[in-house]
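Exam review. A common question shows you a sequence with its structure tokens and asks you to describe the fold in words. Practice with the pair below. Do the first one on your own.
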Amino acid sequence: MKNITIQTGNCEESEQLNILLEQHIETTIFLQRCHWNITGSAFLTLHQMFEQAYLDYFKIQDEIAERIRILGGYVNFVHTERIQALNTNLHDQNTSDREIIQSAIECHDMNAQLAEECVKTASKYEDLVSEDLCVSLISMYQKFGWMLRSLLSQRS
């Protein structure tokens, strides 16, 4: 039986997970703002979707942060402001539900790309737990993105 040890002090992996965590938290806040600001004919559907998503995402933040700590890193944000441009759109009362959905899709695509980078790094260090966590995040981001894309195609 292989002895499974945790590589602590892995700066590269912790740094990437910190970036992913920050992006994930920004996404959670973004989804909450979508939930509050959505209007239009699909209001109830979108209002409920965004609420369920941000509640689910909030729970996952802790898993990512705890993984960083397990690896010997510290949760430390640099506030990269990756989603600031997307959030700016929500300040305008004239923003359509279609524009909000498109911004949410872009946000999830960015998250999936970051999580993919984390998978590659975790694989490099043979860290199956971080790899599994990030693969599950990719699946979640892609699934929500797919649901949002489906809404756009129905509304075309």
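Now try the second one, then compare your answer with the model answer below.
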Amino acid sequence: MGDEVGATPPSGCHAPGRAMTAPGLDELTAEAQRELIGPLWLAEVRQGCREVSRRFDAAVYAVVERAWTSSEIEELVQDVTAEQLLRQGQLRYILDVAASAEDARRLLRHQVRRALVRRRRRTVVDQLLARVGRLLEGLRWERLPGVVPDRWRPRGSDWPAEPPLDSSLRAAVAAVRMLPKFLGAGDRAPAVYRSEVLSQLVELAFTAAGTSLSIDDFGTILREVLTSWVPVVLDQSDGPEVPGAEPADLPLDREETVTAVLDALDGTDRTVLRVKLAGASDSELAAALRVSRPTAAKRKGAAFDRLRTAWVRAGAPGASESIRLAEELYARLRTTENSDA
């Protein structure tokens, strides 16, 4: 194959066009315990990168070239391995959650998608942060004197210079998540904000965080917000089409569609989705459900699978309308919090 990357996979690894037995979960687990990322895992990462990258425009998501060449795939392999699997600890998460080798491969492909989305999001966030910096120089905000790096707060407030807690940043993310986004052309175009909405975002972020914020803090908020959870809903199971989940012949209006989706979810599903879509970690979800982290992760997967099925059955469309439907669904989940408790 023209875009094969690196050396021939070791015995036991599946390679395109070769009739070989893929390694099982026990083999992958044993290798990770010995050396974290060895030849078996590298072969799996490469295969996942090849498969997932086909769905992403190389002109946008590749680093140097405008095609998914062997060098670009290798760059992606290194990105997924170093950042997602090792630095973010996702290798351990995959092994904690996966019940089979196919589960592990599904979760690995999800990490490849995350790595690719982060590449596009990084450029968009840089542009937005430049605009946020200009807004912070306005009359409504003041720079804290003698603080490095620079931090801002509402003018006249006595908010401290200490960095915000993670919980404060999550509160800011939840407060601004549903602000209207202006979507460019194409299903994978980034979401951006018009000037008046970006001003509102800055104000809401300060109010929700309740403390001074830096440009890096706004970067954290924007990166989380712009990781739209709609593709996560549709890609979560990464398996075959749901049997019997044919889209509706005629799409319902937005309110009816959201109601149809919510009616298909039980109280636990709604709690899982509400907590995760607010930006909480799996550990925080486990605390909310009063279960272990692996159990919480499995319940999360099941809830997203049921959401995906309901989404398809309700005839929810793609692209920008799906973003709006998703935001309405998240708003309804938040308003039903007490009734689900």
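Model answer, second protein: The beta strands are 141-143, 152-154, 182-183, 191-192. Confidence is low (pLDDT under 50) at residues 1-19, 184-189, 230-252. Full marks require stating both points clearly.
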